[in-house]
Every structure is written in C-alpha cells, then in structure tokens.
C-alpha cells in the first residue's frame, strides 16, 4: 500500500474480531488506535502488536479517518452515539455486527457517515487472545448501505475490505439478515440443540461411550453450537424474526424426516440425501 493511502484507523472493542482487524490493518501499513473497556486489554493489545496505541477513552479516536466498532451487538448503537460526541464530522464509522437491520438505519440517523459492515469470518473462541492475522482473506465482507448512506464512505469501506483480502458484497440490511439466518444463525441453533440432545442421553454408559467415540463428524456439526454463548444469544435476540422463520422451516423438514423414518419410506430419505449431497456444494464451494 502507498504511504499516502495509509489511514489512521480506530478500533473500539479489542476482542476476537477487533484484534484480528488490528493485526491485519497494521500489517497493511495503517496506524491503528484501540479503545477497550479495561486498561489490561489495552496493554495486551499493544504488547501483541494489534494496535499502535490504546486506551480506555473514546477521545483518543478524535483524529481518526475511520472507526470500526467491534463490540457486542447490544453495545453498537450506544457506541455510535458516544462516538458522535467526540469524532470530527465526516469520519467514517462502521461496525462488524453480525446483524444489520436492528442497527444500520438508526446508526445512520445518529452519524451520517456510518456504513454497516459484516466481515464473515470468525472462530469459536472469543477474546483478544484468540486473534490471529489473515482470517478475513477470501472471506465475504458484507456492506449494507441504506438510502441515506454516504457513497464516498461506502467506497472507503470497500477499499479497506479489499485490502484485507475479503470479497465484498453489497445488500440491504434486511437481505443480509435473511441470508445470515440460513447460513449462520440457524446453524448455531441447530448445532446447539444437537449438542443438547446428545447430552440428554439417559444411559450414562452410552453417553460416555458417545463422548469417547465422537470424531470429525460431530466435531464439524457441533462447532458453531459450542461457540461464544453471548454472541449466539444476541444473534437470536437481534435477528429474531428471521431466526424463527428459518427454524420453523427446519422444524418442518425434521418432522417430515421423522414421518418418513417411522413409515420406512427409504426412497424419500434417499431422495433427500441425494438432493443435499448435490445442494451442499452451492453453499460451501471453494472461493477463488
Ligand atoms: P469478543 O471476542 O467477545 O470481543 C468483544 C470485545 O468488546 C471484548 O474485548 C469486550 O471487552 C469489548 N466490549 C464489550 N463491551 C464493550 C464496551 N461497552 N465498550 C468497549 N468495549 C467493549 O467478541 P467478537 O467475537 O470479537 O465479537 C465482536 C463483534 O463482532 C460482535 O458485534 C459480533 O457480532 C461481531 N462478529 C463476530 C464474529 C465471530 O465469529 N466471533 C464474526 C463476525 C462479526 P472485554 O474484553 O473487556 O470484555
């Protein structure tokens, strides 16, 4: 990156996503200012090279070109309001929240240079200690402008996401929330219930044996249900309608499979598994 395109970038919330962003943005040549709740987190972020400097006061971000809010979903709107009191007009403010409809319009009313964003990359662990470089490469970065969003601010965020190696997608907040319900929020609920159902085995010997035998299949299907509980709860709370819609469709599909099993309708089950054998590839195809 050329020196003249290097920016001063603020990150509020130095957890997993804030930490990963800081590592990559610094490696790209940007200067990164961090804000965390606790001084201890600030010190760790500086020691780990996640930020150039950090502190607990938002005023530290006054001179930034871009501020990225990486705190839990419930804190994003209050954070936009708090930033509005300290930032210079025109500073691009964006967030990384996993839901968008509940945030973007209100945040844009509060700060005209706000652009909603969602880098679709993560890990099951939370916190700064789990941060690592390069997790956004070849992953989608969704940008969700609304009617009032400043096109120049969108362009700047698009450039940053491209520098991170992400593939940029644009859609409305509502389209984002419907799509992520299917591929992110529903899987968390399904996977959590899978683990919970397996844990409910009443025969202790069978339960212990299943825990000893669990291998790659269970590891894959249980991964998102065993992730950050706070994040999973906020996805359900802040994208409730779309999570309910997808979960009810899933419930109906499961009810059909139960009926088919009870009726020994092997052809119907074979057709389902043939359909999903081919259908899965459309969701998990390798990215160029
Ligand atoms: P995380 O690892 O738990 O980090 C959240 C950070 O925010 C923590 O460092 C926490 O500080 C800090 N924080 C909480 N409330 C704060 C406040 N009021 N002021 C300042 N800092 C505050 O969570 P995460 O996984 O990075 O998630 C952060 C955001 O990324 C969420 O909005 C989530 O929807 C989004 N996201 C997550 C993923 C994922 O897979 N994890 C993927 C894409 C987007 P303490 O250390 O003091 O608790």
UniProtKB/TrEMBL annotation:
Domain Prephenate/arogenate dehydrogenase: from-to ranges: 7-288
InterPro entries in UniProt: 6-PGluconate_DH-like_C_sf, NAD(P)-bd_dom_sf, PDH_C, PDH_N, Preph/Arog_dehydrog, Prephen_DH
Keywords annotated in UniProt: Membrane, Oxidoreductase, Transmembrane, Transmembrane helix
Record-annotated membrane-spanning stretches: 66-87
Keyword Transmembrane helix appears in the UniProt entry: yes
Gene Ontology terms for molecular function: arogenate dehydrogenase (NADP+) activity; NAD+ binding; prephenate dehydrogenase (NAD+) activity; prephenate dehydrogenase (NADP+) activity
Matching SUPFAM superfamilies: 6-phosphogluconate dehydrogenase C-terminal domain-like, NAD(P)-binding Rossmann-fold domains
UniProt EC number: 1.3.1.78
GO annotation, biological process: tyrosine biosynthetic process
Pfam families, A to Z: PDH_C, PDH_N
Family to which this protein belongs: Belongs to the prephenate/arogenate dehydrogenase family.
Protein name, per record: Arogenate dehydrogenase (NADP+)
Source organism of this protein record: Phormidesmis priestleyi Ana
């Amino acid at each position: 990156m050329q020196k003249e395109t290097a920016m001063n970038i603020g990150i509020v919330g130095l957890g997993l996503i804030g930490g990963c962003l800081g590592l990559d943005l610094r490696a790209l040549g940007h200067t990164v200012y961090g804000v965390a709740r606790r001084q201890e987190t600030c010190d760790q972020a500086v020691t780990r090279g996640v930020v150039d400097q950090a502190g607990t006061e938002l005023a530290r971000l006054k001179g930034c070109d871009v501020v990225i809010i990486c705190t839990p979903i419930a804190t994003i709107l209050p954070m936009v309001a708090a930033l509005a009191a300290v930032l210079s007009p025109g500073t691009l403010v964006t967030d990384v929240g996993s839901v968008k409809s509940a945030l973007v319009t209100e945040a844009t009313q509060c700060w005209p240079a706000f652009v909603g964003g969602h880098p679709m990359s993560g890990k099951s662990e939370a916190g700064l200690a789990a941060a690592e470089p390069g997790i956004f490469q070849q992953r989608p970065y969704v940008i969700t402008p609304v009617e009032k969003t400043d096109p120049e601010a969108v362009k700047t965020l698009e450039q940053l996401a491209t520098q991170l190696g992400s593939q940029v997608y644009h859609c409305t907040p509502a389209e984002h929330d419907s799509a992520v319900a299917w591929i992110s929020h529903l899987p968390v609920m399904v996977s959590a219930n899978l683990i919970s159902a397996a844990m409910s085995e009443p025969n202790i010997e069978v339960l212990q044996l299943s825990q000893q035998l669990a291998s790659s299949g269970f590891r894959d299907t249980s991964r998102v249900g065993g992730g950050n509980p706070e994040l999973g709860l906020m996805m359900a709370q802040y994208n409730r309608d779309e999570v309910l819609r997808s979960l009810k469709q899933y419930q109906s599909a499961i009810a059909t499979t139960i009926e088919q099993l009870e009726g020994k309708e092997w052809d119907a089950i074979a057709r389902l598994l043939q359909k999903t054998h081919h259908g899965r590839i459309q969701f998990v195809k390798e990215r160029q």
